Amino acid sequence: MNKCIAIIAGEPNSISSEIIFKSWKLKNQFIHKPLFVIGSIRLLNLQRKKLKYQIKIKKINDRFRINDLKGGELPVYDIEYNQKKPFEKISNKSNKYIFKCFDAATKFVKDKKILGFINCPISKEHLFKNKYQGITEFLSKKTGKIGNEVMLIYNKKLSTSPVTTHIPLSQVSKKISQYKIVKKVKIVNNFYKKIFNKKPNFAILGLNPHNFSLSKKSEEKEIINKAIKTLIKLKIKVTGPVAADSSFMIYKKYKFDVIIGMYHDQVLTPFKALYNFKAINITLGLPYIRISPDHGVAENITGKKIANPRSLIESIKFFNYIN
User: Fold this and answer.
1) In what order do the strands lie in the sheet with 150-155?
2) pLDDT tens digit sequence for 56-77
3) CA pair distance 63, 61, nearest whole angstrom
4) H helices of the chain, where?
5) What is the mean pLDDT of residues 1-29?
6) How far apart are CA 79 and CA 38, in angstroms?
7) Domains of the chain
8) pTM for the full predicted model
9) With 90 as the cut, is the pLDDT of residue 250 above it?
């Protein structure tokens, strides 16, 4: 039964419904597995009318069958949410609703109804209120996998992963460790072998500019070099420490598949400059596949019908690799 996928509608007052509708209209071009949306049917219909999409929505229940997901109507598992206007300002009002959507998705996974799920963007600041760094950490705790979570930003040409995620830059040096680098690289390596039957080639970045520090105990010497030696002993293909400022210029020459950075913006900034909406965010280390478009809620363009659905489309397409 678990040959289909679910899309969590995400923050109600965002571009989420727009990119869902745009993706659904193009479904015949790229959707090869049955899917359905988890969200409020009432609100989706309000937003559909506001955005003037000629899409029909049908309600499904938790006893759905694959045949219920076929046809031209967008299947939605309804999570009740009361909002009068199609779009409002983002606030804490929708938090309970969003958590219910995630609860429904994880239950469908547990019941082997779905392969995994995609969540459309949420506002971390409103939803988590500093309790979690992001969805990656939230789901790792929810599934009892704290410490195993890995953020992989994926494109078929190149992927990247930060050892630390949404933390202040001043904390990065204290949060990286030989153990953490080795563990995260092993998880990514196993993912590539399982999904793509491939041993990936890793570039491990240093932390300091040009991998140089006046300190006798630099992070490169004390942490990163030691992690690289351990990974080589494990017969994982790694190069490093690679200077961060040139890493995204030389990845083709050295045929890197994955660039491992020490902090979020060290790798996410150049990666997004290269791939823009053709990148997706995959959480590894969970008992299921979780993906999200690699962008935010875009509150400034909500309801304007100009949002780019490409990252959601790429998220859906990725499930074609999953059996």
Assistant:
1) 57-60, 74-78, 35-39, 4-8, 114-119, 289-293, 280-284, 150-155, 158-162, 258-261, 202-205, 238-242
2) 999 999 999 999 999 999 999 9
3) 5
4) 16-25, 27-30, 41-51, 95-110, 124-128, 135-142, 172-175, 178-196, 219, 225-233, 244-250, 264-275, 310-318
5) 92
6) 7
7) 1-148+285-323 (3.40.718.10), 150-282 (3.40.718.10)
8) 0.92
9) yes
